[in-house]
Amino acid sequence: MLLHMSNNSRKSGSTPRHSVSVAGAVIDSEGRFLVIRRADSGAWELPGGVLELAETPEAGVWREVWEETGVEVEVGGLSGVYKNLARGIVALVFRCRPVGGALRVSEESSEVVWLTADEVRERVAEVFAVRLFDAVRDGVVVRSHDGWAFVDGS
To answer: Kindly report the CA angle at 40 between 39 and 42, in degrees rounded to 5?
Structure first.
């Protein structure tokens, strides 16, 4: 696929603004996925958040999973890159394996649970559920969405 790159933002006078977030697709030995219920919205999602300026992506994933869930993880490889076109958020999702800690809630999570694939399909919005399912596939996936649905090219 050939992509034509241009910087239309310079022509229009605006500067692109993006936020980079990281998330952990944490999968236990039974094949269950670690999921949080966000305290602010009630939505079920992967643990994660905004990457801090002087932080590596892997360190950010470890910190976010620990802060939101109480689970310590071994951070593995990148499983996907996801862009929310409406909000300008680029999310890097890493495969993770739990190695310690204990489930607990935080200021950011009102519930922390292990879900089976069927339970993920029932509770988690598609744009987040696919991130978990992509993590059990080989390779790295790149997808774009508008906040609710994937757009062409995903």
So the answer is: 65
